Amino acid sequence: MNKTYKIMTFGCQMNENDSEKLSGMLKAMGYTPIEDERKAGVVIMNTCSVRENADVRVFGNLGAFKHYKEDNPGMVLAVCGCMMQQPAIVKQIKDQNPQVDIVFGTHNIHRFPELLANYLVSGKRTIEILDDDNGLVEDLPVDRRYPFKSYVSIMKGCNNFCSYCIVPYTRGREVSRPHTKILKEIENLAEDGCLEVMLLGQNVNSYGNDRTDQYHFPELLRDVNQIDGIKRIRFMTSHPKDLSDEVIDAIATSDKVCPSIHLAIQSGSSRILKLMNRRYNKEQIIELVQRIRNRIPDVAITTDIIVGFPGETEEDFQETIDVVQKCRFDSAFSFIYSKRSGTPAAAMESQISEAVKHERLNRLLDCLHDISKGQNAGYQDQDVTVLVEGKSKHNEKRLSGRTMSGKLVNFDGDMESIGSIVTVHIKQAKTFSLDGEAIES
């Protein structure tokens, strides 16, 4: 029996965290990872449904497996993740993709070992999609990608129902993990040599709102900050409407919490923000960013922006440009609006043409890149601390890592320093990264 596996992950950090759990379960079952999916005994495609191009990529990859399974007939192909929470997608797989053996969703990944075992015994295609899991499954094995940093899920789901977003329908309602469980997990990670944790949630600022113990995100940040061994604490994502002064103060006064905030504004037009159901306006964004910078002077603020939302006029787009210029985000994930079936925005009139979307995106990127270059220029000739994550993607003779503020640094240094925190002198500040040289300690 071929007890090897390959997990192909699409989408966000939540999906990456789910894939680490799936990998942990497979290793506990005696499987070993393999790089070449064509030769694997089990392949899992963990899907994302935030944007249409993710769907296209998944189905493109699925098509290739028709041929892979001809050469590797014992292969088990499983598909999971957010796309599988959409009935139309599941029907398309059932009707058009006979090469898929197991289908499951976001609420029952803990059942994958049982689903796999049942398939191996019966040989019958298995499809199990749950609308919700009515809680959180704790203590799943996790195969961490890096020994020195780790994702830690603090909650699941989303209650915001932004008009363009499918996530509340695929991930369910917000459920916060008990803080005692989170803290114990992080303590165990620290004992295992982990230096950095990334606290994950669709909206970390609303952590604890569903619980009765009056323990919220600021308290969690402060308590994690007290755990010996942990050197850096990151988190994402923050919804602007819930980023309170208490959260800002917790970041400012906790020395291990990285001065890096991902604040997904999505648009700078108050009119469009109302159509998006974001529950804040242009003026509130600008005021919030100013409050953050006043309280945390060395903060790096990044964002998400959607271009071409239904009904977006040139005037609306210029409002977004104005916010970007006034807030001076360090970087941004910028996307053209992608219609998601089942969301209110998909049924809105005045859908924007692809040509206009792309033209506006290019203008936005020009603006963002100029600002990013200016923000990075402040690091020129400075010494920064970097958690060394591995070899540089563009030059395997160099190293790569991130500053406390999340800036990507490529630098010359000792390969033995991977997984540790070193000081790097910045020789050149670029638009998207910093270049430097490690300083001998």
Task: Provide an overview of this structure.
The chain is an alpha/beta fold. The protein has 4 domains: 4-128, 3-Layer(aba) Sandwich (Rossmann fold); 144-258, Transcription Regulator spoIIAA; 261-377, Transcription Regulator spoIIAA (2-Layer Sandwich), CATH 3.30.750; 383-438, Nucleic acid-binding proteins (OB fold (Dihydrolipoamide Acetyltransferase, E2P), Beta Barrel), CATH 2.40.50. It is built from 12 helices and 19 strands. The chain has helices at 13-28, 52-71, 87-96, 112-122, 167-171, 179-191, 217-225, 245-253, 270-276, 282-295, 314-327, 354-377; strands at residues 4-9, 32-33, 42-47, 76-81, 102-104, 126-128, 149-153, 155-156, 175-176, 196-200, 232-236, 260-262, 300-307, 331-336, 383-391, 399-402, 408-412, 421-429, 434-438. Strands 2-1-3-4-5-6 form a 6-stranded parallel β-sheet, with helices on both faces. It has a 5-stranded mixed beta barrel with strand order 15-16-17-19-18. Strand 1 (4-9), helix 1 and strand 2 form a beta-alpha-beta unit. Helix 7 packs parallel to helix 8 and helix 10 packs parallel to helix 11. The longest helix is centred in the C-terminal third of the chain and has 24 residues, at 354-377. The chain is globular. The termini are far apart. The relative contact order is 0.08. The mean pLDDT is 92.
